[in-house]
## 1
Amino acid sequence: MVKKIMKMSGYGWAIAGVPIILATFMGMDFWAEGLVKATGVKVSPIYSGGEIARSIEHNGYRTLVREPVFASLVGQSAEGFVQIDWQKAEGGQLPPRLEEDLDLHGDARADCRVSLDTTVPKAAVLTPPPRFISLEKALPIKDGVIVRIRLHRQ
Amino acid sequence: MRGLLLGLASGTACLASCAPALTPFILAQGQSLGHNFRLLAQFLLGRLAGYLVFAILAWSAGLALGAGRIGHLVPIGTVYILLGGLLALYGCLPARETCAAGLATRLQARLTGSHSVVMPVLLGFLTGVNLCPPFLLALTEAARAGSLAGSLWFFATFFLGTSLFFIPFPLAGLLNRHGAVRLVARLTSGVLGVYYLILGVSMLY
Amino acid sequence: MSAPTTAALSSALAIRTPWKLILAYLPMLLLTAMMMTGGRPISPDPLEWIPLAISFLFFNILFFLMLRTGFTDRYRVILFSTMAFLFVIGFIANLIEMRGSMALSESAMAQGETPFCHMVIPVTLIPAALTRTIIFPGHLLGGFAPIAGMVALWIGASLALGRGFCSWGCFYGGLEDGFSRLLKKPLIRRIGRHWTYLPYAILLAVVLLSAATLSPAYCEWLCPFKTVTEYNEVNNFRTLLQAVIMVALFAGLVVVLPILTRKRTQCGLFCPFGAFQSFTNKVSAYDIRIDRTKCVDCGKCAQVCPTFSMDADSISRGGTRLSCCRCGKCVDACPKQAISFHIKGTEAGASPKWSRLLFLYPAFLFLAVFGGSMVQWGLYRILLLLSTGSMVK
């Protein structure tokens, strides 16, 4: 009896091979969305830069200040960064050079002052924020420039 | 977390090197699964004692050399190269040549009929103070911790990470695959050694 | 019945009766027609319909030959290697068209433009479980090679094929499978058995390192296939070192050693994804069995196995090691027809033709759809080159 069940199960699973392959390809987008919804995963903020915390509108562009990232496998790491995006607004342009006071922690107080040459691009910290480590090099992206300010957590 | 992960990463080296000496001892002594687990607990206690002794030594070294200077990139790169090279070599050497527990096992063999708790604890202490490459790497990291509490905590978590690999030992069923597990563990320590070596080289520039 | 050899025109698994052959063949013809066109009308653009037609014919002619002759691996490798080489052509041309270079810049990574491939999956699991984030600079959904899409594909392939993915789907494995067929006889015959455990060691090492550093350690330091796909822009000593390692590993493990040993040395002695995928063999319905009543212990199967999955131990047990990729080379090579594809739960050696067919259908279908798209992609670029003088628009 057990042998018969094993045999039927074996053949059943083997025959299911083709439907599984068909379902995989035909429903790939569906399965992918389902996986993301079921697991709630996101791309690590180490790579995505973190969620957008604040958006400041300027003339022709906007400054996006992202949430601080202190990613670690468990808990938080001792060092991290805050990513700033300078993005062209629709129909707008980034100025060739800008200086801006930035509130990194959302407490309505300027934590640092940064200058940015958007043509190169190249950034510099004029007034460092508390627990400042370093400024990573500015990177050009599709609609603007991003910069990461490295900080100690405490 | 770093201590725990370093322990997890390096535990395979401990497993690979110490298993040939430890397994016969534990299994020769034990008559039941419960007895084997008691032996393991005594052994791990000895290892923890050894690690904490070295935690204190590491903290003292950090004080003497200065945590800031220890954290300097170039010396750390050099340490990584030396230790990575040793670990890579460690992964290639026959296991019996590299573990201090071999000496303890030979001593124990002379004490026939001994069921003293001293032996497994001593065995554990000897493996705990064995200056194997992952241990030396842990020493370096703990010396950078900057405080005695930090150093002790680092070694405690390092101990926990390495100890997880010893837990299945008393389970007799694992014996069948023991050879493959040991081989994979030894090769893993070699791979990690190569990684530390390359990381050390990249830190120099 | 006389024992056929590998030089024979057909094996005992051949389907010779015409109506049985048509019955076995026709469903695949229909399935591939449906899946390759995506159920959409065929484009009148020659740059699209010519690659589609060539792929369709190429795959289906070889499937017919698989059924008619009973040989699996000799036709599989043609498709598998062609897929891999054309994938490289299509992928590189696509990168150059998209961003002007094979090199992956920090800007591209920051914008999540890195295509995700299956090799990264093992190292992302622990961080994903503990932090609910994917440690890879790609995008989850939409676009080219999204993370979730590739994971979904991998799950489906693993459920159906187990490590058969490595012989019927992996677009990297085809490169060394192709190189391993160049010489008639191996120049290096003996490789220590302990090296076959290295992939598991590398798997453990990269999984631990990736969890500790929250970055895909395998991609950064060890992947040889970046040489023919994309790699970090070389702009400092660290990235230069990574580039040197990747080229050395590709040259050694993917080109030179497969040629000299006639084995898939990257797959069998290095690939951590392959080691990880070996465990999915436990889930798959199929395996390879040796009928010990027919086996004469000639060792031919162990000689020809490209991934070191046959040895004296496994042969005496009547099967393969966990690393078996279901390529079918041992089945083709056995002079006594003692080796066959087998459905788990059934008797070993029972209905070998039927068991083989049950395996071939999902395996070949996966190869035809997944691999077929890469063949079309590569052919499109070649036709573009022939018609316009450039592989990129």
Note: Chain B touches chain A at residues 1, 5 (CB under 8 Å).
## 2
Amino acid sequence: MNSTHQQRIAARLASRHGAERRFRALGFFSVALSALVLGFLLFTILRNGIPGLDWGFLTASDATDPAKVGIWGALKGSMMTMVVTLALAFPVGVFAAVYLEEFAPKNRWTELIEVSINNLAAVPSIIFGLLGLAVFLALFPNWRSAPLIGGMTLALMTMPVIVISGRNAIKAVPPSIRDAALAIGASPVQTVFHHVLPLALPGILTGTIIGMARALGETAPLLMIGMKAFVATPPEGFTSPSSVLPVQIFLWSDEIDRGFVERTSAAIIVLLAFLLVMNGVAIYLRNRFENRW
Amino acid sequence: MTKPHELDPVTPRLAARDVSVFYGDKRAIDNVSIDIADEYVTAFIGPSGCGKSTFLRSFNRMNDTIAGARVEGSIALDGEDIYKSGMDVVQLRARVGMVFQKPNPFPKTIYENVAYGPRIHGLSSNKAELDEVVERSLQRAGLWDEVKDRLSDSGTALSGGQQQRLCIARAIAVDPEVILMDEPCSALDPIATAKIEELISELRGKYAIVIVTHSMQQAARVSQRTAFFHLGKIVEYGKTSEIFTNPREERTKDYITGRYG
């Protein structure tokens, strides 16, 4: 290397290091901004909500008097709705992903299905609410406001998310593992269930967390199927009328009585805590499967 | 029918007749007929892209898993055409094992890697029997002494050479008749390669072994029969000693002396 080269490199060094510093500053600023927004949100909610968060609030259900309202009815409704959603969307989503990725012939029909599923994941949630209203409630008119119908509606919304993440997770399993299993005489189904799915499970669970978290916070489709009714008792079963957390928050935020401001914030804290617990369980499961080998 | 390349008056374990393999419209193997006997290690050599791996994969129908791949002609295993309709591919692959280019142990324990085959085929009726199969297979693969105290460690934690021997143990655990090896040493260092070659020599006679290799030295060291592939055809098939010292065909000679390949 001659000296002109060295000079040219030296002349550019300052601006190169400058670009480095500017990018880092920009990145730090972006992180700080999002952390700040989150911090502000949490701070406001906690400051407003903590005083309203007591045992009575956690065990009672909706009422007209803000001093007597509680969140238990909506919390139980949300839990039951999520159970229905998970029970429907997870197996259907995973099996659909497995079939499309491992067994379906690659032709125009499967391509069409693939595009449709991707589109389905992007459909606004209110449309799923309309579908729930038009189909599920038309079939089971007595189950208006029930967690079962809510869960079914949200499952429609969650399923495509699980299919997409599931397919990507399955695609990421190295083909050499399939070759190894097939070459030893495993049938295609054995290959999938013994080798491919266990390796894809962490990725599938990540997609499921995202889908379920979205479903938990969903309000619009549930309004459509009548889950905004005033329900003063916790749901007894999957077919009894119920409220859910986000709808309850929405309803209380609309109340004129000042006493509801505190209650709304307290309900948000409960919703966030539920979300954290749900994600925590999913992350625990994911890590457990990742550490299995 | 093209005249099969046959050398020995013994009954062949595998007999390929007029086999052509297509990828879409592209013909990768062109009317190949060959007999492969139990007693020997048979090496397939040839320049890259000559179709030797493709041909090897048609012996256990692994080409079935490739979209657009198609096999014509017949391959008989013990006289039974493996491409006839109604042939059970799962059973075929239990009889014709395979070792791949890159070691591909399951991300499970060493024990599970070897036990998997016998387990899915229901070869052992209890745990003690399965333990015995695992130990015997690992011993035959020359890996037992290195792993006997760590059978519950992950198979992927082993070194590359050990992983490949684990894959060989996994293949022999189901007691196949034929073992296909697709460049089993190409991802390994010379010491690990030497161990695999030694192992191949030890396994000779117990199984019919067909090995695809890029290394002519390796073919010369481990095999007794060599087929030279070029452009999807077998140019020459003969005793390894003769192919390497006194090839009949000009093209074989050119390849062996390093003119191309």
Note: Residues 118 and 186 of chain A are 32 Å apart (CA to CA).
